Amino acid sequence: MTKEIKKKDFTFEHELVPQHTILSKKEIEELLARYRIKPYQLPSIRASDPAVLAIESKPGDVLKIVRRSSTAGEIVVYRHVVED
Length: 84
Known about the structure:
Structural class: alpha+beta
Distance between the termini: 17 Å
Number of helices: 2
Strand content: 25-35%
Strand order of the largest sheet: 1-3-4-2
Number of domains: 1
CATH topology: Eukaryotic RPB6 RNA polymerase subunit
Radius of gyration: 14 Å
Oligomer: single chain
Number of strands: 4
CATH superfamily: RPB5-like RNA polymerase subunit
């Protein structure tokens, strides 16, 4: 039995939950051109991930995830949303 995650059930205010942002088409093009890669070459994140569900992202989107680090300050990573 799976519990459906709803936007109100998931909070980004917790200190261990990094900020997730859906990139625009233009931002995706710039990112892929900068690194000379295709979207499938990015690390993936499943569409069923609670954070993905909370921001209402869909397969094919690219997410920018900003994590806080005690040693590096902020770390920016990108994830390609894939189907389960």
